[in-house]
Amino acid sequence: MIIPVIISGGSGTRLWPVSREGHPKPFMSMPDGESLLSKTYIRAASISEGGAEIVTVTNREHYFESRDHFNAAGLHERSARYILEPVGRNTAPAIIAAALSLREQYGDEAIMMVMPADHLIEDQTGFIKATQHAAQLAKQGYLVTFGIQPTTPETGFGYIECGQLLADQQAHTVARFVEKPSLATAEQYLASGSFLWNSGIFCFSIGTLLSEAQKHADELLIQTTKCIEVSRCNAHNKITQIELDCVEFQKIQDISIDYALIEASAQVAVIPAQFDWNDIGNWLALSKLTNPDSNDNRAQGDSLFINTSNTYIQSSERLIATVGVENLIIIDTPDALLVAHADQAQQVREVVKQLKKTNHEAYRLHKTVFRPWGSYTVLEEGQRFKIKRLEVKPGAALSLQMHHHRSEHWIVVQGMAKVINGVSERLINTNESTFIPAGHQHRLENPGVIDLVLIEVQSGEYLGEDDIVRFADQYGRVQQ
Fold it and tell me: Which of 12, 86, 150, 185 is most enclosed, with most CB atoms within 10 A?
């Protein structure tokens, strides 16, 4: 049995301002409208035998949005397992936790196919073929990784030096791993023909992984095992949730699977991948997915190029025009604008570092914020007021809650709202409104079959999102 395990934990800081901590890279839409995560789910479904469940390891805060992308991939009927991290601890704890959670049900012989959630692979047939090859090697006791044939002297990737050919005359042993070399070294690797880019995709049996972890990362295995033993597991219909215990998980070493295990093991094999692969590591890489004009300009959204060359524009809400420029990346969002030289695409992460130092909200959230019940968009705010657009899914409900410092007006513009306000309960139709005084318990619910859209006008001395006391919540957000 091949069980797909999707690691969805990267923040994608080089793709700011679209990728942010609260809405990271896997949720980004590609030019065709599908997210990287949805594409990964579709790819995972294609390789799993007998409809095996698809496992996602992600942050607890991203659970509901991950499920939305799972459903958007057309996988409503598939079984899914979500392993939810309270904090990030890199790939080694994530993968070992997944193996431990699967071992009891599937046994040591089951094959795990571990793939990041933010890679783009268009050749589905080639990927399936490579997966089947890797599974055969995994059954022989190998930890299998996929190597990508380099096309440029890339300094942002890790490299794998191929060793001896295995009996199948396709895969190799691994001579060594090299982490992000200098340009001169990368050029040597490209010329030698014996180095591959490290894709970060792995295949192994549960038993082999845990046996090798015991040899090379025993303390990590012990800590993760203890965490799994005390973590809460909820199963409903075809969905299993494992909420990793916060106290125990934070004790686990923050380390990648490469450093903790793969580079130390003598049982590693690398398959030179015959499929296309793109990790969409920065805006320059993403821009290549769009067809260029005669001056090598590319655009997503309304744009106008005049005397411009080799420039990429992405804008969702307004026209962007350029005159007499070249080699630029321009990314426009409702609350942040990025202008960068194309040669400096890797340095966008420095913007995020500076924003985090000053605790600027733009590193963490967009104007539109996704919640389990839907989303809200901040339309305008000023001293003592804030205006939002709320969109509530059919059948969804906000928590029963109260605010100390703000009052709220709700105006329904689409659908029908069921509102609890203090001790009263009423239905509010389109073009009707209600007022929620500060200190009142209240709840908003969509009892209809279409999206509920309303405008919320907040007023008060303090309008922060942390001014909320939850009394009941169907999404498990009430502190016990």
Answer: 12
To which H or E segment does residue 323 belong?
strand 320-323
pLDDT digits (tens, 9 = 90+) for 290-338: 999 999 999 999 999 999 999 999 998 899 999 999 999 999 999 999 9
Domains and CATH numbers, the chain: 2-272 (3.90.550.10), 297-351 (no CATH), 368-472 (2.60.120.10)
Average pLDDT on 372-400 reads 96
The number of angstroms, rounded, from the C-alpha of 96 to the middle of its chain's C-alpha atoms is 19
Contact 363, 20 (CB under 8 A): yes
- The H or E element containing residue 450 is none
| Phi (first) and psi of residue 67, to 5 degrees | -65, -35
pLDDT tens column, 413-471:
999 999 999 999 999 999 999 999 999 999 999 999 999 999 999 999 999 999 999 99
The Cα 297–Cα 303 span in angstroms is: 10
Task: Give the predicted TM-score (pTM) of the model.
Answer: 0.90
Whether the per-residue pLDDT at 87 is higher than 90: the answer is yes
pLDDT at 213: 97
Q: What is the pLDDT of residues 320-330, one digit of tens each?
A: 999 999 999 99
189-208 burial, b at 16+ Cβ within 10 Å, e below that, comes to: bbeeeebbbbbbbbbbbbeb
Give the full edge-to-edge strand order of the sheet including 400-402: 424-428, 417-421, 442-445, 400-402, 469-472
Selection from 390, 363, 393 nearest residue 474 by Cα: 393
- Interstrand relation of 239-243 and 80-85 (parallel, antiparallel or unpaired): parallel
Hunting for tokens 């990964």 — which residue is that? 40
- Going by C-alpha positions, the residue among 11, 23, 32 that lies closest to residue 376 is 23
> H or E segment at 321?
strand 320-323
pLDDT-derived band at 72 (thresholds 50, 70, 90) equals: very high
Rounded CA separation 394/146 (Å): 42
| Selection from 267, 272, 274 nearest residue 162 by Cα | 272
> In this predicted model, what pLDDT tens digit does every residue of 10-51 receive, in sequence order?
778 999 999 999 999 999 999 999 999 999 999 999 998 667
Residue 200 region by backbone torsions, left for phi larger than 0, else alpha for psi between -120 and 50, else beta: left
- Beta strand 442-445 with 433-436: parallel, antiparallel or unpaired? unpaired
With CA atoms as reference, report the closest residue to 474 among 377, 401, 369: 401
pLDDT digit string, tens, across residues 114-145 = 999 999 999 999 999 999 999 999 999 999 99
Question: How far, in whole angstroms, is CA 360 from its chain's centroid?
Answer: 21
Side-chain-side CA neighbours of residue 51 (13 Å): 6
Environment class of residue 51 by beta-carbon count within 10 Å: exposed (0-12), middle (13-18) or buried (19+)? exposed
